[in-house]
């Protein structure tokens, strides 16, 4: 095995922000975070926040729960420079091209 090519594998705390009270799990991961939290053993660990876990997932709980992820679409559009209605315009252009081909 090559030395110094693998990420650091350390103890971290994962917190489900949808759960009330917060659901926290101490495990090992390569994920990093600027946020830290003091755990029950008195040590400080990096804190990774997540939107869903076994404490809130409908499969495990047996009930539906609304998770607010509305910002994901806006973030995608900003990342790829897509404005509102731009997708519809592209579809209309494609339809016009297809009509021109069938008319010829």
Structure notes:
The chain is of the alpha+beta class. The protein folds into 2 domains: 1-61, no CATH class; 69-99, no CATH class. The protein has helices at 58-61, 71-80, 86-103; strands spanning 10-16, 23-29, 36-38, 44-50. The chain has a 4-stranded mixed sheet, with no helix packed on it. The model has no long low-confidence stretch (mean pLDDT 78).
Instruction: Output mean pLDDT.
Output: 78
How would a textbook summarize the main sheet?
4 strands, mixed
**What is the helix tally?**
3
The string of secondary-structure elements, in order, is EEEEHHH
Number of strands: 4
What structural class should be given to the helix and strand makeup? Answer: alpha+beta
Extract low-pLDDT stretches.
Answer: none
Distance between the termini: 63 Å
Helix content, binned percent: 25-40%
Coarse morphology: elongated
| Oligomerization status of the protein chains | single chain
């Amino acid at each position: 095995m090559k030395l110094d090519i693998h990420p650091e594998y350390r103890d971290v705390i994962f917190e489900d922000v949808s759960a009330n009270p917060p659901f926290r799990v101490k495990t090992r991961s390569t994920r990093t975070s600027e946020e830290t939290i003091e755990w029950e053993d008195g040590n400080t660990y990096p804190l990774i926040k997540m939107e869903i876990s076994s404490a809130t997932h409908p499969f495990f709980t047996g009930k539906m729960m609304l998770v607010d992820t509305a910002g994901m679409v806006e973030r995608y559009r900003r990342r790829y420079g897509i404005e509102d209605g731009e997708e519809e315009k592209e579809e209309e252009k494609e339809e016009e091209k297809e009509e021109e081909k069938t008319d010829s």
